[in-house]
Amino acid sequence: MDFLKNKLLTIILVLCLVLTIFIGVTANNKNNEGFFQGVITSTIAPIQKQIYIAGQRITNIFSFIKSISTLRKENAELKSQVQDLKNKLVDYQKIKTENEEMRKLLQFRPDNNFKLISANVIGKVGDNWFNVLIIDAGQNDGVKKGCYVRAADGLVGKVIEVSSNTSKVMTILDENIKIPVVINETLEEGLLVGNNNSNTCKVSYLPNDTKSTVSNLVITSNITNNADVVVPSGIIVGTIEKIEYEKINLSKTAYIKPAVNFYKVTKVQVIVK
Amino acid sequence: MKRNFIIALVGLIILILQQTVIMNISLFGIKIDLLLIFIVSISMFIDKTDIIFTVLPIGIVKDAFFPYVFGLNTLILVLVSLIVCMIEKKIYKDTIIIPMIFTFFATLIKLAITLLFLLPTGILGTNYNYIGKTVVFETLFNSALAVIVYNYVKRMMNSETLKREWKF
After folding, report:
1. Could you tell me which of B149, B60, B159 has the C-alpha nearest to residue B102?
2. Structural domain includes residue B167
3. Which residue of B has its CA nearest to A10?
4. Where does the signal sequence lie (chain A) (predicted)?
5. What ipTM was estimated for this complex?
6. Disulfide: which of A137, A174, B26, B91 matches A131 by Cβ 3.0-4.6 Å?
7. Domain total in chain B
8. Domain that holds residue B12
9. How far apart are CA A183 and CA A236, in angstroms?
């Protein structure tokens, strides 16, 4: 066997074979977790965190310059919005007190039996195929696979892989995401799925005669099939931009503008039991 | 030794930049792969024994951060750098079009290997419109950017600091 005499060719062939086996095993489990990966990500995470923050600061400068022209208009809109919200706040306080009293009378179990773990976004991975964030909280902080992640504006996604000090979070823009959601105004249930890794996502399987309309709010539902995970209902996912009829599954699909700006997200919270 | 170490270090810095800054920049929804362009450009200056051991740590670090699969990026980077390394010796490379062509085909190889492993396992959805768009735009964007990256790499490889060996 002449080719075995060539050491380089042998090394390459063995290397390719080993890598193919690794790909096969991890792809079969759809899981890239392990001690080795954990050590590498934990070592690089601190450097990556600083560079990510620096990058975000530069992006913020550019977006600030871009927004100067629209500031006056935005200010007027926000002032009228604040006035509306002030009126709603009076009603809200009244209803909240009533609700608390009723819950006490009926001895309802509170649904806020969860705690929040704060984390920083330190990177984005997955090339053009996946929309995955790396956060600097992992197993040591209590993060588990499947936990939901939220930012100040709304839902970010859910944890898909956990190592000792970092975790990978599949965002709601990812093609593989599947999260049960509810339309806030109509209480119709649907399934949140990604939209080709674009800046929007969609809610599939809405009833054919849906009453949901454009600008309705989409929030999380508390349905889950994972006993280790707690899903608080009412986390804002986004607003409906358009609704289309899907011929294939005879249902309607709503296209959602996410509440979170994924270009600017830096701080998140992992929801754990 | 020194040269390979510095190249691997620069590669790791580019990988970190890719994961922190470049992933936020997209054109028509497609992100460029600066690391692949760098590896292709570097492969035109180093011999094949050195390139494998320089590319290997970069690929492993990229794989540690990659979701679902381990080894895919290392395999892509090793194969691409090796192919470029073997072909470049046989052609006249002193024109700017050569790194562009190399990057064009390297991106195609990268996408082909990715699809070959991720489509049958069901990790990647079968949205052929999006796959087609990614193939077309990523190859074009990467090839266009190769001109700039290649010039920087060429300057780096010809610098006196990199040519001088470490003295222990």
Report:
1. B149
2. no
3. B49
4. none
5. 0.86
6. A174
7. 1
8. 2-159
9. 10
Nearest to A8 among B49, B117, B121 (CB): B49
Exposed (0-12), middle (13-18) or buried (19+): which is A175, by Cβ within 10 Å? buried
Among candidates A19, A31, A124 on the partner chain, residue whose Cβ is nearest the Cβ of B24 = A124
CATH number, domain with residue A151 = 2.40.10.350
Q: Do A32 and B125 touch (CB under 8 A)?
A: no
Yes or no: say if A121 and A268 are a contact pair by the CB < 8 Å rule.
Answer: yes
* Contact list, A130 vs chain B (CB under 8 Å): 67-68
Domain of residue A109 covers 71-121+147-160+172-273
pLDDT over 50 at A170, yes or no? yes
Asked if residue A155 belongs to a domain, the reply is yes
* A19/B69 CB distance under 8 A: no
On chain B, the residues whose CB falls within 8 A of the CB of A175 are 124-125, 127, 130
Residue pair A258/A235 in contact by the 8 Å Cβ criterion: no
Split chain B (168 residues) into runs of 10 and give each run's mean pLDDT.
85 92 86 93 87 90 91 92 86 80 94 91 83 92 93 86 67
Count of residues making up chain A: 273
